[in-house]
Amino acid sequence: MAQAPPSARTTVRRIHRLLLIGLAVVFATITAAFGHQWYDSSDSSDAPPATPFSAAPPSKSRSAPSPNVPRSEHGSAPVEAGGTVPEGVTVFDDGIAAVAGLDPDLLGALREAATDAEKDRVEFYVNSGRRSPEYQEQLLREAVSTYGSEAEAARWVATAATSPHVSGDAVDIGESDATAWLSRHGAGYGLCQIYENEPWHYELRPDAVDDGCPRTYADPTQDPRMQQ
Predict the structure, then answer these.
(1) pTM higher than 0.85 for the full model?
(2) Which residues lie across from 174 on neighbouring strands?
(3) Quick one: average pLDDT of 78-90?
(4) In the sheet that 170-174 helps form, which strands lie side by side, from edge to edge?
């Protein structure tokens, strides 16, 4: 094959040179970009992790209501005079109608027990105490709505005519450590748990000081007083 004239060969060499220069520029650009990306990745991996937000310590509050108990049992109704109890009320709060309206002997036993329990760093909070008949009937209506029938509601809420809360003879104690303390020591003050399904519900049984607390009922429907 005949050789290309000198002018043609010169043109080809220039094209080759331009192609090589172009490839070198592209390669340098890619290399620089890759190096920058690697640097950013390496730098971020060496950086200390961000400090997480610290969780605030839990505030002291009464124990959450049992899932089997209507929320209204723990003071959700709007009228305090009817027997609702604000957050943080203790057995020593005479300014709360639900506490001040309790039977004096029951309240005295509660305060004596609470004073001794303080030595064990246990405090007696009141979830519910004395209730008005109107408030008790409101709780019963809410329980029927919650549980779907009067029969099931009766396992948790008595009528105004039979409830010991209306007569001021019952108290619902908050905080599991307080109910645990009472389950161990309450009989010595005449304070007894009455229903197995309500470990927070306490009434006064003076004979328990010498004889121990009577056997608990499974729930209020087993209590003869509720059959009136």
Answers:
(1) no
(2) 125
(3) 82
(4) 125-128, 170-174, 198-204, 191-195
